[in-house]
Each structure stands twice: as C-alpha cells, then as structure tokens.
Amino acid sequence: MRHATFTKLTTSQIEFMDVDQITALTSTQVRAMGTAQINAMSADQVAALGTEDIAALSVSNLSALTTTVLQALTSDQVVNMTNTQLKALTSDQLNILDVGDLVELDTAQINQLTAAQVGTLDTAFIENMTTEQFSALSA
User: Fold this and answer.
1) Per the count of CB atoms within 10 A, which of 11, 47, 55, 101 is most buried?
2) Is the Cβ–Cβ distance between 35 and 54 less than 8 Å?
3) Distance of CA 130 to CAs 48, 79, 126, 135, Å?
4) 56-89, pLDDT tens digit by residue?
5) Hey, what's the torsion of the CAs at 43, 116, 131, 109, to 10 degrees?
6) Nearest CA to 46 among 9, 97, 103, 84?
7) DSSP helix/strand/coil, 119
8) Is residue 107 within 8 Å of residue 133, measured between CB atoms?
9) What gap in Å lies between CA 46 and CA 118, rounded to an integer?
10) What gap in Å lies between CA 139 and CA 29, rounded to an integer?
11) pTM as predicted
C-alpha cells in the first residue's frame, strides 16, 4: 500500500487489521500513521509492531500515545526507542511502561532521561536498576 493511500485509513479500519497485517507494515507506513490511527490499535496490534516500526514513530505521535498503547509495548520495543523518543515521553507515560521494560534500558538511554522524568520514576524501577544504570543518572 502506498504511503498516501495508507494515511487515508480510518481508525475503524485500523482496528480491524489483524496481527499479520500489522506485522507486514513497513516502518515508512508506521511513520506515516497519525496519532489517532496509532491509538486505535489494540494491545495485540501494538505488540505486533516491529522494533524498527516503534523507532520510526515521530516524537509527536509517541508523546500522544494512550495508556493502552504504552502498556502494550514489549521490552524489545521499549529498548529500541531512540534517545529522542525516550526523552519525549512525559513522566506519566514513562511510568506507564512496565518496570521490567525500563530496567532493560541501556546506560545511554537512561542518561537521556530528563530530570523531570527521573524525579517521577517508580521506586520499583530504582530498586531494580543496575549500578551502571544508576551511574548513568549521575553522568
């Protein structure tokens, strides 16, 4: 499906795509999706997106993701977010992510978190951080 055609899909049409169709999306198609289209996806659909698809999301799309979509992200999807994407998450969004996903972030990613994000991190994340991750907060 061409880029221009794909962007015309309605949220209802996105909701009816099966997991195989979601898996077949290219990063270019995912990048072209609007926030409403992405937020129309079910947890299973979001989990079916490839890590390169998540990395292709624009910062504006990522910052508008709903709780349902954020909770559906897998560890692989979270750790493959770009530093810019992680930095763009609001403190609330960051805390919606599973602690198990966050502890998989590398030190470069943790170093990109803003002071506001770090200040609101769930204590379970702090408790499960490695020494290297904790040191990245101080860098």
Assistant:
1) 101
2) no
3) 29, 15, 9, 9
4) 998 888 887 888 888 989 999 999 999 899 988 9
5) 60
6) 97
7) helix
8) yes
9) 26
10) 37
11) 0.83
- Amino acid residing at 57: L
**Which phi and psi angles does 81 have, rounded to 5°?**
-70, 150
Nearest to 59 by CA among 112, 9, 106: 112
Joined tokens for residue 130: 């490695």
Question: What is the amino acid identity at position 134?
Answer: F
* Identity of the amino acid at 58: S
CB of 56 closer than 8 Å to CB of 27: yes
Question: In the predicted model, is pLDDT for residue 4 greater than 70?
Answer: no
* Among the listed residues 83, 41, 79, the one whose alpha carbon sits nearest the alpha carbon of residue 59: 83
H/E stretch holding 30 reads: helix 27-32
Q: Let me know: does 57 contact 31? Beta carbons within 8 Å.
A: yes
**Which residue type does 35 have?**
T
Assigned token pair, 129: 């951080």
